[in-house]
Amino acid sequence: MKKSFYIAIAAAITALIWSCASTGTPSGGRTDVNPPVPLSFSPENYSTGFTAKQIVITFDERIKFKDLSKQLVVSPPIERLALDITPTAAFPSKKLVIDLSKHNLLPNTTYTINFGNAIADNNEGNELPNFKYVFSTGDTIDSLSIGGIVADAFEEKFDPKTTIMLYRADSTFNDSTIYKERPMYFTRLTDKRDSTFRIDNISPGNYHLIAMVDDNSNMLYDQAKDKIAFFPRTVEAKHDQSTGYLLRLAQGRPPYKVYQGVNQQPGLILTQITGLEKDHTVERIYPALPEGSRDYYIFSANRDSLSYWYTGEEKDSILFVVKKDGIPTDTINAKIRKPAKVDFRIGLKKQSLDLGETLVVTSNKPIGSVDTSLVQLLDIDSIPVPYSIKLDSSSMSALDIAFRIKHNSRYFLRILPGGIKSILGEDAKDTLSTAFKTKSPDDYGNLRIQPVSFSELPLIFQLLSSDGKTVRREVRLDSPGTPVFDLLPPGKYRLRVIFDTNGNGKWDTVDYMKRTQPEKVKYLKDPIEIRALWSEDITW
Fold it and tell me: Does 346-439 carry CATH code 2.60.40.3710?
């Protein structure tokens, strides 16, 4: 009995010792969602007369770094500082140590070591946002501030991943600086609901104010990916300016780049070209177009691709030259392969037709000719309806069929083989036969806008889908007047106006190299509900 008792006691003690010695993570309990908290600084944060060779910051839990090389910004810059910071990824610690023994600090200078969002707790990865350590080698801490608002130039919502930066406006700053060098000062938006920003501890002087949606978090401008905003004038820091600056972010035009051509299908070379200007041209230079053959150069709407269509057969490759103002800049080489044949097809853009719309026939290849004797438009009584046809000259792949549309009517469209031919001389194999009907005017509503708050012209009023993603209708206003959207299907819409400053009929984005701001865009705050048999009047 006693022996069994002592054995039980020994087992219990062994279990207790094992439990105490175990370093495993306890199961259960709430997940840690809190970032690490700094408990002490040595020297103290915001110290003056700084002479220390080492900074030690102690946290309440072990920390690790996330993308330290991308996140860390020191102003003024200190070379190789990232190499002198512990802990490492392999050895997380509660202590963050910054070794300054190899660096000569400038006298009477305020330094800001901004970790961005690089510091996180070791277990859950909770980030400590915008953490910074500030000290001065002089008697005072620079205390000037610059702040304002960041907005998207075209969309209603701003991107919370935006970084706002200040570059010293001196002889070292040029057009390429933001592509190659990190800023003197920066901050990030920390609240997804708040687009205001503030940069603190700035020394007096003149600065360039820049904002970016920094896609790869390196604080260098990637023109192909990053949205950018810049204040048009230098900013003078001489007193606190924690509000007042507006930055409008937009995706700039991509940099100029030419890609090789691809023989997408027989008779088609497709080439991607980014950053193409209006004075860029593309010409075939080798081999010469065979006698009796035809070719067509068709650029996409935003000129970011070129479709080269040609008749006849090619054996090896086609060489093109890209010219700017008549001067060659690049070549495009396209190897000829044997892609699968693609049949020429036509169809309707929409299977229904609202009053006031145009019937649109689309095709998968550019249209070369139309034989109207093989295109029939009939009413419900099979009586031919007079119509006119117009080819979309930009895409060459859409036909607008205009006719006098009657409400509450049914129509029948038939396009026989040979009625429409591609530029390669191909016939659509199948007959296109479709019936559609129109509604009554009583099924629609109208919208009238009184633009009393707009003094700038021209303006482009765009009626958008309820989610704001699709342009339903558009009205241009070149002189004072009242924009009207009539015969609108019932539903909810959004309203947007573009300040078409250059009068080219479209919204123009930012161009940092040319120092042009994006054109202004404004949204009506509340959605508009259109009801049948109702005219909605809006004063804006």
Answer: yes
